[in-house]
Amino acid sequence: MEWIYLSPHFDDVALSCGGLLWEQVQAGEGASVWTICAGEVPTGELSPFAKSLHERWESGHGAAALRRVEDRRSCQLLGAEGRDFDIPDCIYRRDPGSGTHLYASEAALFGELHPGEEPLVTQLGEALAGVIPAGTQVVAPLAVGGHVDHRLVHEAAKNLGGTVWYYADYPYIEYAGQEEWVRLAQREHVDLAVSNSGLQAWISSIAAHTSQVSTFWPDLEAMAVAVGAYHSRVGGVRLFRR
Q1: CATH number of the domain residue 120 falls in
Q2: Contact, 203 vs 223, CB < 8 A?
Q3: pLDDT per position as a tens digit, 13-33
Q4: What's the predicted TM-score (pTM) here?
Q5: By CB neighbour count within 10 A (0-12 exposed, 13-18 middle, 19+ buried), where does 94 fall?
Q6: 171: closest CA among 43, 12, 9?
Q7: Which of 132, 143, 152, 191 is at 20 to 30 A from 169, Cα to Cα?
Q8: Do 31 and 78 meet the contact criterion of CB atoms below 8 Å apart?
């Protein structure tokens, strides 16, 4: 069986499903991580918000290149193939008419997709439909937490044919609280086991995204504890049906 995991950013699939990918590869199945918002940092002035993220990541204008290297290491640890698309991260995207940055604050990241990006959703959906082989199991984000790039990939995946599964976006699902987890549990789903070895591979795959760990945790030890606690919810990863 072949699996394609759609990752809004370089780290999202590692965060949400790393242990499951490892288990699938160990079982002889094929698994690929397709990162959608993997485009290069555009030339020109960045928003103050984007600059602040570059400072936190210690990446400068080479953020995409740095994160791509991290992702390849992460995929290698999981035994998965990596593929990148050329859509820039939302923090770089501009209104084509006015040139203003569409998502220039933390609040904007977790709001609605800008109406001007509706064509982008359609274009992405068509692009994915044109390259995903028939019979492939596709796994897309639920967009829990509402990050605009997660919304973009979720909406594009909704129009794909064939089998589409969805993963709960970690760690955003933890921030959403127990009520959201209970609500999601009412949807059709399957719990797929991740062994202790798979859990360690999961943690290592997240740690490979060195620039991003501080976004969610103070250090690697705290990350490992948190991922272990998340794993214990269902003993692995829960995938949801369309």
Answers
A1: 3.40.50.10320
A2: yes
A3: 999 999 999 999 999 999 999
A4: 0.97
A5: middle
A6: 12
A7: 132
A8: yes
